[in-house]
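Anyone opening a protein record will find just a pair of labelled lines. The record below illustrates this layout.
***
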Amino acid sequence: MNAKRQTVWLVSMLSLMVVLSAYYLFTEDMSESAPAETVNVEEIQIDASELDKAQADALKAAAGQSESEILKQAQAKAHSGAELISSLKSQHREALSKRVEQLSAILSDTKKTKEETAKAREEIDLLEQQEQIIDHLEDTLMADYQFADAAVVQDSGKWTVYLNEPTIEKSEVASIAVMVMKELKARPEQISVKLVN
């Protein structure tokens, strides 16, 4: 059993290295600056795949809006990377709060069955646990990596890490991806890193 775990780990790390190598070989220099009136969002894609259907539905319901909708709204309002990340965080928290309110209404409704209330309680617990992990990741990114600001957003089974930084080292991207994979139990193809400035 231990050999299988080591094999899976090795294959995961090799996949991550291949994807990151390919990305850095075929991307432009990140030091190009954006016009003063727009927010530059640069994506560092690790890969894209789907979670299993139940997890994706539960997490998407928690977010309320898709990442692309939130990003478009935030970019329309934001004039800097810090404002964009702040806007993403507040919109995520609002959507989460609305979802928890909906689930709490199910819990307090006496007409609901025990199965429905148990399912609602389970989803609330999942959302709270996930929010704690996201807060921990964002705090770690700002404390350990000295980023000005960070946001971790989930959409359709994919996790995006937004960093308020003009550039980032390749080794930092790899270590951030490994940290997100470990904390959120995500696969490398489900993680992307975007720089905003």
About this structure: The domain at 2-196 is CATH 1.10.287.4300 (Helix Hairpins).
